[in-house]
Amino acid sequence: MPSGFFEGIEKIRFEGADSDNPLAFHHYNPDEIVIGKRMEDHLRFAVAWWHSFAWEGGDPFGGPTFERPWYPQDDMGRARQKADIAFELFELLGQPFFCWHDADIRPEQGNFADNLRTLEEITDYIGEKMQVSGNKLLWGTANMFSHRRWMSGASTNPDPDVFAFAAATVKSCMDATHKLGGENYVLWGGREGYETLLNTDLKTELDHMGRFLNMVVEYKHKIGFKGTILVEPKPQEPSKHQYDYDVATCIGFLRKYGLENDVKLNLEQGHAILAGHSFEHEIAVATAEGMLGSIDMNRNDYQSGWDTDQFPNNTPEVALAYYYILKAGGFNTGGTNFDAKIRRQSIDAVDLVAAHIGGMDICARGLKAAAAMIEDGGLENVLSQRYSGWKSPKAESMLSSSLDEISARVLNEGINPEPQSGRQEIIENYVNRFV
């Protein structure tokens, strides 16, 4: 039976841009065909269990503001109740996927054996609900940052017992993800970083982190997990410096430890901003190296210097993100997870529903704008023209010659190039036509 938590809210329908119904989709039509594929199949939306159901509305300066029937989240009865209400939200929204950390779906027991027992119990329960609803698990992951045992990291911890506890925890979460048919498994660094170099052996910690991730890949193949292993870049918060700083840093790390063929990246808009990048930059770097796996869609408040995890509301930013995703062929096992939370003043159930509606609409608008730009071909033409000089045999031959040979050619031919306009404003005006 329905819990009553979403009482009075009916299944969200697509009503179009002219509708003034705040509880309807205005742009997200799951069956609309966008460059040959259903919109739902392009976007592959997922609800984040942690922000939507586990977060209690606190911030660094104040405690919980939400009152939910499954609080306090300290026993299996409430864990099952939380799952019941989660699947009610999935049904209301029509989102095909969801994501979780182990600590989101089961209560913390204080020891590994009981954590394992409760994780297995709740994943059996979630599995039964998935069979009825048809929802899928986009990815699972382990929370190795909240409990005090993780205060100095997990795989990078100076205490080998913490490393062992982390390995056991990740194994249990991979088993749970595999059991539920998850399409990816994510390792978010959490506290894999340092607060001060004065007590940190960087080489040892990075080597341990590299070996840990190799163990994860080895175990994936042992159990026959067909999903993708993902790591998630984040530059700071909670640690002063995270080892998985940004896409380029992660790719260098994966190549150093021989993991570039087995691990891809889960990218978040908020983390890109914290690293001093745009979201489209991080996606473009990942796709250029064939490393894009999935995305966490949210935004930061640009007037705040931390990870505010707000639902997206900026169509131009979202459009450019999906432009590079579509250029790379779209998602494979990945999707669009709303790693976003409602504001701590938005205390009602309807606020949770409305936030997802808005996020889904913004992503739909961004996807359609991205598809229109791809079909128009304007940006591709800009690139083709700007780099056209490299298509000549003489230019191509430079890349296999030497500095001596190139220098002689410059002298002999009197090469003295004039600057060429990058036409940035014209290109930006072009993009604005679509968004």
TrEMBL record:
The record's GO molecular-function terms, alphabetically, read: magnesium ion binding; xylose isomerase activity
Superkingdom of the organism of origin: Bacteria
Q: How is the cofactor bound?
A: Binds 2 magnesium ions per subunit.
Q: Which residues bind Mg(2+) 2?
A: E268, H271, D307, D309
User: Any idea what this protein is called?
Assistant: Xylose isomerase
- Per UniProt, the enzyme's principal EC class comes to isomerase
**InterPro entries named in the record:** Xyl_isomerase-like_sf, Xylose_isom_bac, Xylose_isomerase
Q: Which UniProt keywords apply?
A: Carbohydrate metabolism, Cytoplasm, Isomerase, Magnesium, Metal-binding, Xylose metabolism
CC cofactor: Mg(2+)
Q: Give the record's GO biological process terms.
A: D-xylose metabolic process
Query: According to its UniProt record, where is this protein located?
Result: Cytoplasm
Q: Which coarse location class describes where this protein primarily resides? A: cytoplasm
Q: Where does the record place the catalytic residues?
A: H101, D104
Output the Gene Ontology cellular-component terms.
Answer: cytoplasm
Q: Which residues bind Mg(2+) 1?
A: E232, E268, D296, D339
Can you tell me which family this protein belongs to?
Answer: Belongs to the xylose isomerase family.
Q: Name the reaction it catalyses.
A: alpha-D-xylose = alpha-D-xylulofuranose
Q: Which NCBIfam families does the record associate with it?
A: PRK05474.1, xylose_isom_A
Q: How does it assemble?
A: Homotetramer.
